[in-house]
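DM from R.C. (forwarded with permission)

"hey, sorry to bug you on a friday — could you get me a structure for this? deadline for the figure draft is monday and I only need the backbone to look sensible"
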Amino acid sequence: MELSLKAVTVTYTRTFTFIPTTERFLDWEDAPDQETVNFCAFEDLFGMIHDEVAGPESPMPHTTIKELEKSVKINWEEIE
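My reply, with the result:
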């Protein structure tokens, strides 16, 4: 069976502010630099997204799904 489906673009919009604290870096051997702070913010943001998607909160308030205009054809065979 041939199915006609549209490609989609998914945009996940979430703003997150990371504020470095002394406590965050207490057990680090080397002093953090700005690149480290940026990475920590990135890591925390994606941890939050992961928790939202896996947990009871819905990520949908932060998500936009847009169907593209052109459809594509795929072949589909049901498994018996």
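R.C.: lifesaver. DSSP finds one helix and two strands in the chain.
me: no worries. Residues 34-54 form the longest helix (21 residues).
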